[in-house]
Amino acid sequence: MTAALACLATAASTLTATGAAAATADRAATEDAAAQGLLGQGRADDLLRRLEAARVDRVPTPDPGWADCSAAFGAGAECGSVALPLDYDRPQRGTADVALLRIRATDPAQRVGSLFVNPGGPGGSGVELAAAADQLFSPELRARFDVVGFDPRGTNYSTHVQCFRDAQAQAEALAGLQPVAPEGPEETAAQIRAATALARACSTTGAPVSASMSTAQVARDLDVLRRAVGDERLSYLGFSYGSYLGAVYASMFPDRFRALAVDGVVDPDAFRGTVRTAHVPTFVRTGSPQASDAARDELLARCAAAGPQRCLIAGLGDPATVYRSVVDASRTTPVPVTDPWTGAELSVGYDELVSVVLSVLYAPNAPAVVDVLVWAVHHLQQPPTQENAAVRAQAREVLDLLVAQLFGPAPDEDAERAKAETFGRPWPPYPSGLEAATAVLCTDGLHPLRVRDVVGAAERIERQAPDFGASWAWPSAPCALTAWTARDEDAWVGGFSPRTAAPVLVVGNTWDPATPYGGAVALSRKLPNSRLLSSDSWGHTAYGTSACATGAIDRYLVAGELPAPGAACVGDDQPFPEPAGDTARSFSSRPAVPEVTPRPATPPLPTVPEVLTD
After folding, report:
1. Which of 194, 198, 480, 580 has the greatest CB tally within 10 Å of its CB?
2. What is the pTM of this model?
């Protein structure tokens, strides 16, 4: 142990004094010692953090070259980019351009600094999140901060990973991927072939970018970006996977932030995995399938308690039974819906229906929307008769309106081209979203040995969380050790329990369908200088679900004010509320379609348009 400690100390001092190249071997030994437990975790982590500080501090502070980009991204937007090392130990081996977008504080005289935001994913666009700051963040937050979003290396408007020669080659290789999850031997075999092809392409053609996309690399980039905007210490708000980035940054640079809030939290040890959990797919070990299942079952139970006067499907029978009947029938009785972008008729079968349900669960008003959705599909599944013609027409209108909300506005090719050109990206763009998300998953953690090992894991979790389990398991398939060989040697191997100089705010909501509340509890227990804020709310992440949650997060970010220990908020949208006064809800005409509330977090699974138009 003494020899290992000496090696660690030597690596740290060598890196500081002589540069990264001379310290590479000692750095590798440092991380090996930490990973193998040759030192106490605390002593190893302290020395790893010295190494990390020396790594990033050697990089000169870059100039983003801010320029007005409001024509492409909206009023007040300023865009820039910086070139950062693909490998901080060997900066001469190439760089990645990292795209940034800034919306300046509305009250410059009271400006605190810059607030870096990340929407999750992995692979979500921080540039797009910052561009929507006025719609997603409170006026109080907007007044005090320049909101800065960046696209992590390998994604979106930054230098993005490209694992295939072109989009056509990608489409041919990945044709066997199912939009949700495979069923039956033929689909499963095709899924395995496609996942293997993706892994091999990203490990060869996609390198070296694909081998340089771990969250630790993004955390290093974030610390350099902090300097680039002139902030002595970081202010950060991360959603969903962005909570893992926040946990990694806090662990690597515990004295370099003034405020760090994470909302919709993954347990970082579960996300990265351990030797004992390596065989379990990433999102299964973080509890995502179980969270989706719990949110769905709870809203059906609340519907039953509310009764037919407040919940549509309670008027059709026991809500859980009705839901299962509708979902099972969707396998053999798909229903029509109108593509809001083209006017073409699409078909909603099993894959499409469960994908829409999961997408809707991300909204704070999920119970009301799922209620209307299941009601509409139920009526459209019934054989047409003269007696049900009117209600079927209402159901079709409801389903069309709901899908139009989920699709959103049709893509504007000219607008999208202008955004790409702002950052010098090619047009038409290479579709790198799946490759980027997969590269992060694969380089960050531990994974099963073989692609086919995911089959059993998917089947097991599907039994525990029907409709959702397998779809959360399959994203890990390309990461199998025998398929994905692009390793990021600089992924974080240290612990997640640093004594940070400033407190961390950890936010979790009880009915989050993607990041269970237990993830927030786990992280708050790991971080000795943290505070947990609980929210009894629906949807993915808590920010924006109530004045209580939003205000508490804002006050912490602006002034460092923590909520009281044990503080809990209640979301504004609660399932099936009592009607105002004595007037019962009337369903004599077409039910109102609730507006699906937008969220700042980026889902890790395919979007509704991707599934319905596949």
Report:
1. 198
2. 0.92
